[in-house]
Amino acid sequence: MKKYALYLSLLLVGIWSCNKKDDPTPNPQSDEVKDAIYSSMEEWYYWNQELPSKPNPSDFSTNGEFLEAIKFKPLDRFSYLTTQEDFNNAFVGRNAGHGFGFAFDANERLYLTFVFDEAPAGKDGWQRGWEVIEVNGKPISDYKTTTGGYDFKLGAAEPGITNSFSFKLPDGSITTRSNTKAEYQSNSVLYQSVIELTGKKVGYWVYNSFKATAGLNPTRSKEVEDSFDYYQNQGISELIIDLRYNGGGSVAVAEQISNYLIQFANNGKLMYTNELNYLKTSLERSTNFKKIGSLSLDRLVFITSRGTASASELVINSLNPYFEITLVGDNTFGKPVGSFPLSPYTPVLKQNDVELVPITFATANSVGFTEYFNGFEPDFLVGDTPQFNWGSENDLRLLAALQVLESGSANSRILNSYYRPVWEMIDAFKGLQQEFPVY
How many domains does the structure of the chain reveal? Predict the structure, then answer.
């Protein structure tokens, strides 16, 4: 969407500059802003023909309530509002918080799933596989809600908020850590390695979110470049991509990764197409593969879960017509649609620091497949084992992926251990935070 987004932005700036006035005092929750939200949805919303008649803005105390009232349900679980700064920071990995994730094992024990290196938790040495036994002096069971989910009451994603956590470490010892939220730069690559498997080299890549590196033009990720340089130098022939906690992110970075993965024989072929609403069909475009690097992969295995969403699913769907792809883990989230922010096209939103990010397009792969609102089903259902650190031979999803590459299937012991947790971390977040879920 970048090319025509930039074009339209320049065009509109030119029009507005003819009648420039002093900026009014921002009033983000005003009726004027709600009017602008509705008019923007009329113009850009993918399901704009399904919009209800405009409600009375005065009947809603917040923009969020207003947006919720006009969204197309049940398909639209995704449109959201945020601020322009928060939106821009999220897509380049500027965060505030502790910097870790949670997940339950089959026995409903809670574990750290990932820790960002430069976050407060990372600097304190926290690791995947630590069992969380208390939060702020209370057992985990105290945080269970009436709906069966969990609310750990850790406070807003703002610097200065302190929480206490008690952990049981893999060696059986107990440690209690007080941790204060702070601003930090998150890393998208959580782990990378090369595994020798019956005479061939298999890459294992744990990728957390599609975040661009600030300041690079065209939009791309330096972390992605470094990872694929590593795998090229190692001479891998097959790759396991672990997206089990990857909620999405930048489409440009998804394209970058897909261009590293595609075979030379399919360079230049169709990656995906965008479909917009009936008012914007002239802006629809197709994106073709532009091969990057020297990787020549025979097979791909993706490790997935319900936390695998958006740009993660776009990569899987775009590559599926060209590769022998196997999914190991659980159903993906189911988001075959995407968004771009609308404040650049709506002066009232821009002046009031309201970023409207509704669903504006759908994507289809080269064979036209686009309807995966129920997610992608895995070829092998395998439960998560967050009690083991990245790369552990005891991680059942990694073990199953290796077995698939070696023999074409996962053994029955692994498959019989499958479970689906009643709560996953992605359930605790909405809007922008659901795309980059982290505490």
Answer: 2
